[in-house]
């Protein structure tokens, strides 16, 4: 998980520039990115990418809609300090929540792929697909429900398309295998279900 293999051609370099290039590439040309930018045994860039997206998302929410996180039963204000609580939330997101969540979802996704796709790529590729599919959600904190909902829908589509591309299977099988993980990540984790419900309402 901490090994960087040879840098593929489409935005997988180290550091902030590599992450920014990967973000632009997966949004602009997902087919090319998932074909060329996902390498066997190369989870570290994907993990770093997912952590950055999660931190940007949470930081955005804390900046424009802090009531969604702070002062709730899950995250009470600690010691009467909003700033300290925000810092702690970001730290927990980066160190615990994002890495653990990524690998839990990837484990679920791997099991579902085992049940639906016979000749598939490895676990590390699955981790990377889940990680890079979160790219649009770096903007899902924007307090416009239509924009945020579009980000979650685009992310779910990227996950399903990425599974089909990387595991060389049909889009139908990818939908069957990826439906539950997509719902968990984008419907629950990035609040897509609530955003869509608010638009319908």
Q: What's the SSE pattern? A: HHHHHHHH
Shape: globular
Gyration radius (Cα, Å) is: 17 Å
Please tally the helical runs, counting DSSP H or I stretches of 4 or more residues: 8
Q: What structural category arises from helix and sheet content?
A: mainly alpha
- Percent of residues in helices comes to 55-70%
Number of strands: 0
Uncertain residue segments: 1-6
- Measured by DSSP, the beta-strand proportion falls in under 5%
- The average pLDDT score comes to 90
| End-to-end C-alpha gap | 43 Å
Q: Mind describing the biggest β-sheet? A: none
Membrane topology: Multi-pass membrane protein
Protein name: Yip1 domain-containing protein
Keywords: Membrane, Transmembrane, Transmembrane helix
Subcellular location: Membrane
Describe, in short, the structure shown.
With 201 residues, the chain is mainly α. It contains eight helices and no strands.
Can you characterise this structure?
With 201 residues, the protein is an all-alpha fold. It is built from eight helices and no strands. The longest helix has 35 residues, at 82-116. The chain is globular. The protein starts with 14 loop residues before the first helix and ends with a helix. Residues 25-187 form the Yip1 domain. It is found in: Membrane. This is Yip1 domain-containing protein.
List keywords for this structure.
201 residues, mainly alpha, globular, disordered N terminus, Yip1_dom, transmembrane
How is this fold's topology laid out?
Elements lengths: L14 H14 L1 H7 L6 H22 L17 H35 L6 H11 L11 H22 L4 H19 L2 H9 L1
Keywords: Membrane, Transmembrane, Transmembrane helix
Membrane topology: Multi-pass membrane protein
Main location: membrane
